[in-house]
């Protein structure tokens, strides 16, 4: 679906390189391949061995970095970041990487995810004298690192990581080291590769293909990698790990040409579509998918059902970021600017419209209406994931139950709300099996919190913010 219209956005993507003379240029191309993970801001920090240099700004990667900006970034190590805003909101000061300078040396941080205990940590740090320069949860880690009391930066980082909870894939750059950390649940994807003698790290493996790097492996949950001119070494900051990667990476977020957890995203989405056809068949004339993330699932649905797949919806790829707006009114207007039905495909036909998810339902309603206006006689909506009934606290901006159509409506009411002839979601077990996980195993390696309400970590909620209507799970694994 169209994240910028629908409001289902992941927080960001990260990319890092160590040991390459064109580190900034490589990071630029890496970030460009991760642009789908964040379109509000981008930044790159480079180390030349003596100092860190930062360039960042609001907008797309190509808008932030012209030829001049990259020429100013010389060095053989770099980290970069693209973002959507969730925790801390937008604004230039929150664009990452965040760079901090002190007499102990400089440190830059890039973060994908969301910390769930950030408010308590901020209160504690401010009481101890810390002054925060941003409203980003990422800055908390920088303060914790510098207050660690250890002589070596690696020990400071490991100590700080034990204090934070939630989802995080961190890249931490100093003048002479690149450190890479993944949370104990591995909620966000993070992989390491190599190009010649240089190491690269990225949120998705598609970035390795762009820069010509060879994939080595995924970063393990609870692992801290330290990369320097001496090579690379792996340490652990915790042994209490429980792999729970976000299921929406397979359903929606990751690029189809990426591999997540050793599983190709396009192939998993085709299997999601096939399983959806098995569970929720319907008599129809044509199958179409909502571009771009639902195309693979729609193909899978069509192949299994025998109903022809057609491009019933076309995405306008030349609409700019004007429509990446938070207001519901602009989201609704933006649908027609982003999507157009193909009358010659859907007119007089019974249409199966495959989509990856329903959040508020507004976009689905608009698309169903467009298909009918283009002459579709029936519109059957099939969703290649379970119904989203619970907020996400790990970096996806669905932080309130009242935003979620499935949390407040029955299936029949949802179907009526979006104006479809029928509506069906994929089962949770069916999704797990299609992705390639065993639904029979309790530790299946996936986070299902937005579907089941069972969170892999403790959740801390500030009752004074917009999440006040959400009940707080009192411990990991509790049900909302």
Description:
There is one protein chain. This protein is of the alpha+beta class and 480 residues long. The protein has 2 domains: 3-243, Aminohydrolase, N-terminal nucleophile (Ntn) domain (Glutamine Phosphoribosylpyrophosphate, subunit 1, domain 1, 4-Layer Sandwich), CATH 3.60.20.10; 264-437, Rossmann fold (3-Layer(aba) Sandwich). The chain is built from 18 helices and 23 strands. The strands form 6 sheets. A 7-stranded antiparallel beta sheet has the order 3-2-4-1-10-9-11. Strands 5-6-7-8-12-13 form a 6-stranded antiparallel beta sheet. α10 packs across α11 and α10 runs antiparallel to α17 (428-435).
Summarize the SSE layout with pairings.
Blueprint: H1 3-6, E1 12-18, H2 23-33, E2 41-47, E3 52-58, H3 61-64, H4 67-71, E4 77-83, E5 98-100, E6 107-115, H5 118-127, H6 138-146, H7 153-161, E7 166-173, E8 178-182, E9 191-195, E10 198-202, H8 206-211, E11 214-218, E12 223-228, E13 231-236, E14 245-246, H9 248-253, E15 259-260, E16 263-264, H10 265-279, E17 286-289, H11 295-305, E18 313-315, H12 328-338, E19 339-341, H13 343-346, E20 350-355, H14 362-373, E21 378-383, H15 405-408, H16 411-418, E22 422-425, H17 428-435, E23 446-447, H18 449-452
Parallel strand pairs: 14-23, 17-20, 20-21, 21-22
Antiparallel strand pairs: 1-4, 1-10, 2-3, 2-4, 5-6, 6-7, 7-8, 8-12, 9-10, 9-11, 12-13, 15-16, 18-19
């Amino acid at each position: 679906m169209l994240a910028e219209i629908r409001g289902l956005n992941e927080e960001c993507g990260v990319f890092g390189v160590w040991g390459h003379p064109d580190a900034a240029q490589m990071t630029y191309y890496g970030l460009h391949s991760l642009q789908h993970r964040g379109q509000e801001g981008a930044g790159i920090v480079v180390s030349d061995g003596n100092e860190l240099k930062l360039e960042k700004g609001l907008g797309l990667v190509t808008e932030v970095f012209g030829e001049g900006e990259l020429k100013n970034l010389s060095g053989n190590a770099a980290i970069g970041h693209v973002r959507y805003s969730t925790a801390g909101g937008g604004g230039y000061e929150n664009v990452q990487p965040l760079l901090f300078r002190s007499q102990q040396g400089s440190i830059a941080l890039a973060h994908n995810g969301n910390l769930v205990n950030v408010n308590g940590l901020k209160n504690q740090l401010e009481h101890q004298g810390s002054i925060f320069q941003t409203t980003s949860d990422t800055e908390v880690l920088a303060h914790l690192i510098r207050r660690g009391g250890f002589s070596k930066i690696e020990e400071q980082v490991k100590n700080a990581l034990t204090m934070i909870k939630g989802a995080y894939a961190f890249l931490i750059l100093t003048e002479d080291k690149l450190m890479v950390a993944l949370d104990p649940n591995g909620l966000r994807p993070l992989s390491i590769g190599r190009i010649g003698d240089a190491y690269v790290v990225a949120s998705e493996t598609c970035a390795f293909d762009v820069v010509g790097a060879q994939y080595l492996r995924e970063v393990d949950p609870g692992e801290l990698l330290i990369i320097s001119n001496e090579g690379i070494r792996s340490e652990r900051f915790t042994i209490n790990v429980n792999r729970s990667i976000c299921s929406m990476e397979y359903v929606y977020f990751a690029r189809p040409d990426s591999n997540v957890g050793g599983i190709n995203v396009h192939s998993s989405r085709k299997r999601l579509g096939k399983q959806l056809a098995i569970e929720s068949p319907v008599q129809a004339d044509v199958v179409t998918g909502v571009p771009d993330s639902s195309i693979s699932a729609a193909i899978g649905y069509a192949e299994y059902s025998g109903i022809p797949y057609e491009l019933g919806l076309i995405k306008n790829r030349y609409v700019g970021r004007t429509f990446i707006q938070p207001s519901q009114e602009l989201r609704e207007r933006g649908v027609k600017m982003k999507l157009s039905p193909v009358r010659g495909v859907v007119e007089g036909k019974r249409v199966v419209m495959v989509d990856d998810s329903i959040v508020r339902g507004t976009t689905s309603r608009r698309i169903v209406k467009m298909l009918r206006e283009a002459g579709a006689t029936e519109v059957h909506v099939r969703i290649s994931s379970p119904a989203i009934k619970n907020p996400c606290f790990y970096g996806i901006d669905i932080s309130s139950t009242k935003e979620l159509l499935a949390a407040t409506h029955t299936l029949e009411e949802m179907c009526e709300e979006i104006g479809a002839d029928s509506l069906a979601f994929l089962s949770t077990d069916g999704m797990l099996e299609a992705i390639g996980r065993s639904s029979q195993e309790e530790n299946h390696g996936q986070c299902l919190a937005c579907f089941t309400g069972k969170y892999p970590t403790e959740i801390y909620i500030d009752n004074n913010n917009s999440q006040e209507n959400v009940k707080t799970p009192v411990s990991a694994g509790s049900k909302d």
